[in-house]
Amino acid sequence: MKPGLSPPTWLYTLLIVACGSGSDGSTGPGPGQKSPAPPPPTTGPTGNYESTIAFVSERDGNAEIYVIGPNGERRVTNDPAKDQNPVWSPGGSRIAFERNGALWAIGADGSNPVQLTHPPSGAFDVRQNNIPLSSSDGRLLYLRYEPAAITIRVVNFDGSNDVEITSGTLPTWSGDGSLIAFDYGGVGGSDVFLIQSDGSQRRDLTNSANAQEDWPVISADGKYVAFASSVDGIVVMRTDGSTRTVMGHGSNSYRWSPDASRLAFREPRAGTASDFDVDVINVDGSGVRKVTNEAFFVAYLDWSPDGTRIAFDNGPFTGGHVYVAKADGSGLMQVTPTASTDYEPAWKR
User: Fold this and answer.
1) Which residue of 94, 196, 262, 267 pairs with 89 in a disulfide if CB–CB is 3.0 to 4.6 A?
2) Whole-prediction pTM value?
3) Alpha-carbon distance 258 to 255, whole Å?
4) Cα separation of 171 and 141, whole Å?
């Protein structure tokens, strides 16, 4: 039996990176081997890639939402409050984000900003961890922090049907929004739980004894959950509980590929605590491939919808930029060539 949920202070301050992997057809090196180091990044013109990314920039002295893509770059929000953690609606016509402790949405062209959630006094709502938290049917998954509880909630992209699902933290869900993975526990240990998005069939997936098993990321098809174990590093389990694969690699930052065949993850560089590489690994633990070989302070990652590219930031605490690299480690380039801080990339889907 796990202890009750106790909101730890690190949840309010720690940046969570949710990562995943794509499938570009490459086989990669064998188990336990890494590919040769990729070349350093180049700085290219705005929009030198195949799709569109929303991100946060502080170039005008305040955190605002921008988009960048084949047709160039534009500013989306313009408000004295900080606008952060963007996520696209299905189809890409609107972008949801955090502002003043609530969720908002705005047209991708900057039109019609609407407040979606209305937390009570003393509470605030967060989008959590930059995993694309909109389902294919147009809903948002989010957390509400209240003085005595943290709850997982779902709201439609137009602000309707805002409902509480369960207590817990670190929620992610399958692409169709039917299944939610989340963390529940306390100081004595934590487990990864699963629940249907209607609040039914809540169950403990990992049933760990004394380990911290958290930071779950569920695959789009709902068949797998990757999570971080204090004992085993990255672990992958089937959501029916039938298999448990230890991947190793002490990271709490990873993302599934669109086809659930691989994970991309942030791995600390040797001898440092704040510099990271982005690597990719097959779902069976084989074929580790190095995507970057730079001293990046990677905070957020996202994968292109076709699984061929990874967007990530070097920041936000280092005055960094948004970068894009191919999954095979080639084509690494800085795509926000400004003198400001750009971070939290989220790919349009």
Assistant:
1) 94
2) 0.82
3) 9
4) 7
Written as one letter, the residue type at 181 is: A
Q: Two tokens at 328?
A: 């095979």
- In the chain, helix, strand, coil percent, each to 5? 0, 45, 55
C-alpha to C-alpha distance for 140 and 177, rounded to whole angstroms: 9
Strand 94-99 versus strand 102-107 pairing type: antiparallel
Residue at token pair 């790919």: 347
What is the strand order of the sheet 213-218 is part of?
213-218, 224-229, 233-238, 244-248
Tell me the three state secondary structure of residue 146.
Answer: strand
Q: Residue 107's Cα: distance from chain center in Å?
A: 22
Specify the 3-state DSSP secondary structure of 12.
Answer: helix
Look-up of token digits 């953690």: 85
Report the SS3 class of residue 32. Answer: coil
Q: Which two tokens stand for residue 97?
A: 């984000």
Which one-letter DSSP state was computed for residue 288? B
- What is the rounded end-to-end Cα distance, in angstroms, of the chain? 40
Fold of 9-347: Neuraminidase (2.120.10)
Q: Which of 85, 92, 173 is nearest to 130 (CA)?
A: 85
Tokens of residue 80, six digits: 């004295």
Written as tens digits, the pLDDT of the chain (349 aa) is 444 444 433 333 333 333 333 333 333 334 344 444 544 444 444 444 567 899 999 988 899 999 998 878 889 999 999 999 999 998 899 999 999 999 999 999 999 999 999 999 999 999 865 565 667 778 999 999 999 999 999 999 999 999 999 999 999 988 888 999 999 986 668 999 999 999 999 999 998 877 889 899 998 888 999 998 888 889 999 999 998 888 878 777 788 888 889 898 887 776 666 678 888 999 888 888 888 877 677 778 888 889 999 888 886 555 688 888 898 888 888 888 777 789 999 998 8
What's the 3-state SS for 120-139? CCCCEEECCCCCCCECCCCE
